[in-house]
Amino acid sequence: MAKETLGYVQMEWTCPFCGAKNPGTNKKCSNCGAPQPTDVQFEQAAQEKLIEDEGLIEKAKAGPDIHCPYCGTRNPAGATVCSNCMGDLTDAAARAKGRVVGKYKKEAAPDVACPYCGTMNPATAYNCSNCNASLRQPPPSQAAAQPPPPRRKMGVGAIIAIVALIGLCIFAASLFLRTDDVNGRVAAVEWTRSIAIEALVPVQRSAFRDEIPAGTAVGECRLELHHVQDDPAPNSEKVCGTPYTVDTGTGIGEVVQECQYEVYADYCAYTVDEWQPVDTVSQSGNDLTPFWPEPQLGIDQRLGPEQEQFEIIFDSDGERYTYTTNSVDQFTHFEIGSEWILQVNQLGGVVSVEPAQQ
Ligand SMILES: [Zn+2]
Ligand SMILES: [Zn+2]
Ligand SMILES: [Zn+2]
Description:
11-stranded antiparallel sheet; elongated; 3-stranded antiparallel sheet; 18 strands; binds zinc ion; 3 helices; about 350 residues
């Protein structure tokens, strides 16, 4: 995120001794004359107008004010002698800077009534235009500080439902996991071996122009978001967050926003030749000597992935069980008529087989 300064605005502070609202640049209370204490923060004005006074802007940029170690008076950064007591400012402590005080209040705020005479005054006024009383900000509302509502406890019905669901899952799993031993005799075998045939086929793809292989014919393009970066670039759209005000420690706030650039680039359709399966050749048989098909390849063709599957059909007192394996080594042991012990699950599937003891 790149930070951008939109400008500078006057902040305010409230005198802790008399309650008067003061412009941020005032180092002493305009009502009672007390210097602003170190621990009294600058606040956001009701409406923030960008300052045009170059001198004030330079002050805001110069760094946070420093407090005189003898009388507490605020002095500008770089001052060596206190403007109030002429004290040495070598050991003066700087105010904190960088605190985000809130969203930039650009819009006009409603007028406020003077608490003493009722006269309406602009929200940005410090004193009543009629009676000159200090226009204090109303205390924050208490409504926000309510305790959160108590959390609802889980109902008994929900607990029963969860327990029942867990039970059902265990029951379903047991159907698959529990097996019975069954004696079976090999009645038939079948093997299938197949090889895919691949060919170079034109395929439609799309990608950003800079990712398309060189020498490829490019079709239709449209602008798409390519990436986001901090610096400006051609074909980019500037996207900024909500501006906010930062305390500079000088009584003047810096209004900043964080911006990024969404860079757009040509996203294009193109055609490229890729190896794709176009056919499958298979061999199958009912003996224990499987072999691979040997297809004749055409121009621009090649052999693709191979697949093999072996099926053994057992007879057990008239009951038929089918066992499937991908292992040719295992398959060649299933002589027709040989005896095996089958582990059969509750759904009739053969989970594993082992030779019966002679
Ligand atoms: Zn005061
Ligand atoms: Zn001083
Ligand atoms: Zn008034």
